[in-house]
Amino acid sequence: MKNQVLGTYTVRQTGNANSVTIPASAGLRKGDNVVLILKPDGNLEIKKERRNFWDEAPVMSAQEKKMQIEDLGYDPLEQTPKGRERIEE
What we know:
Elements: E1 12-14, E2 17-19, E3 34-38, E4 44-48, H1 53-56, H2 62-72
Antiparallel strand pairs: 1-2, 3-4
Region (Disordered): 66-89
InterPro entries: SpoVT-AbrB_sf
Protein name: AbrB/MazE/SpoVT family DNA-binding domain-containing protein
């Protein structure tokens, strides 16, 4: 997919923060999380946050998930990071 300009938006003050309205055509839904990246050139990049392991896995039944957890020996959703494991690309 090539880059697509969605429009130009004005930064507004909301309490002690600034906000920008993201159009629905951007593909984000209520409750989605985004990561803000400040680039060295001063530009700001907004990326949709990656979902957890089970959201990225193919659709599985509860029984299949249970079998995967048994095969792994642990549930990835119940593990806490020990260091810098969650660094984005």
